[in-house]
Fold this protein.
Amino acid sequence: MTQVDLTIKNGSIVTPTSLVPAGIAVKAGRIVAIASNANLPDSSRAIDAAGLFVFPGIIDVHVHLRDPGYTYKEDFKSGTLAAAAGGITCVFDMPNNHPPVRDVTALKDKIDVAEAKAVIDYGLYGLLTDGNLRDVKALARAGVIGYKCFMGETLGKVGPPSDGEMLDEFAEVAALDLRVSVHAENDPILQYRVDKLRKQGRGDAYAHFESRPQIVEEEAVNRAILYARETNCKLHVAHLSSVQGVDVVRKAKQGRQPITAETEPHYLLLDGKDYAKIGRLMKVNPSVKTEIDRASLWNAINDGTIDMIASDHAPQTLEEKTKPMIFDCMSGFPGLETSVPLMLTQVRRGLVSLSKYVQLTSENPAIAWGIYPQKGCIAVGSDADFTIIDLKMRGKIEPAKFLSKAKWSPFENFEFEGAPVYTIVRGNVVMDHGFVDSEVKGKMIRPLADSQNTGTS
Ligand SMILES: [Zn+2]
């Protein structure tokens, strides 16, 4: 073989079933060979991955890069640099920026922004909201990776569609053979409870927990599953947080419905007890719940009910986050630079295997959203996206060093063991031991026409 652009030698390739000691050769952004070191071609650059683990690029299917509209919180440059620093090679950006991505004009605005600024690859969600049924098909033609439907109110005041329109929109998405991600929380129940707690003068962080009992999630997940079944629409349940939510998803999967689900490190690592310690910085929707809910999410990961781990990176300014009354504080926190090290620490603790973690962060997301095998695996012909991991690297979470504009975290000072040391996107080294290359150009990823984008189970 003639000279290639990049080789990665001496590492262990992590696949969804095993560890394979092998080298990789990359040319023009794609994997061209997987072979023993001796059989690799010459290359312009060689990475020695001795003692390291080579993952297919980690895909984060749930981020809010806030651009355009809220660039004081984050933008496509700072957000994708943060992702690269955190070992993530591809993000799917949520549509609740401003203007929200509810039609093709807004999508095109966002594509222009992302093309100019992104340093890693990205997919863009279209919005399903009140009054945009007629835009659903055009958004697909313009290249959305899938859709997001906020069943509870969120930033940007993109309210839930009426039940009637939601059903029609699901049918439209089914006809396009795409997938809908739902933020499944019952809006009237939580608004009512927030109101009641406000009137009682409750301003503490725990009041947020009380405003969103498990049934808020259970009811909405149930309704989304019912509408998806009725319309044959492929469904993705974002950020599962409760036992009840998990049970409803598990049942639907047993009934062979094409449904996938996601959770985040904060639901796996924090619970009700932490509100007293961490306070308002851990306000997030859905709320972090009890120890029992947390345990059920771990079970759901290991029995396949939960298919993916994402960050739900949702940067806010510290000022927006620390108002005197909890219900005046914004929800969400940055997660792109903490997600992978926090989860690798759980790998070290034996809570999840390396192979399972690859499924959760690469293979399953790529299959569910229709971009496999372009992404989501290490195979000849696939995009040369890699996250190279050092499982021995120790440290603690230091938000002051984040590349995200939000330099704070509920995980401040959490100790980690295991971290990404290289982030490689289509053969470009975007991060090398913490140093990022802001000149790399990210690319928009669209669903493949012939991908196996059915439900994973
Ligand atoms: Zn979100």
